[in-house]
Design brief:
The chain has a single domain, classed as SH3 type barrels (Roll), CATH 2.30.30. The protein has 2 helices and 5 strands. By secondary structure, it is α+β, with helices and mostly antiparallel strands.
């Protein structure tokens, strides 16, 4: 259990470090549907974070657990 909490804290820290930067996200939308978007991390909250896509300028919300499970993969400029 502690291992998962530590991993979750690392994910939160990484997302905080990427806030405001351009990122590439691969999102598993289910039923073998994957989407890749370019976005900017807009806001960070205790359980979720929001990103604004560059195409269409829509705001989307993801949980840190989505990243931990691999449903969302973030590739940022580090």
């Amino acid at each position: 259990m502690k291992k998962n909490i530590y991993a979750l804290e690392q994910i939160k820290k990484r997302i905080e470090d990427l806030k405001g930067k351009d990122i590439q996200m691969s999102i598993n939308r289910g039923r073998k549907k994957f989407e890749t978007i370019t976005a900017v991390i807009e806001s960070i909250y205790p359980s979720v974070f929001t990103v604004k896509t560059q195409t269409g300028m829509t705001l989307q919300t993801f949980s840190y657990f989505d990243v931990m499970c691999g449903d969302v993969v973030i590739n940022g400029d580090e």
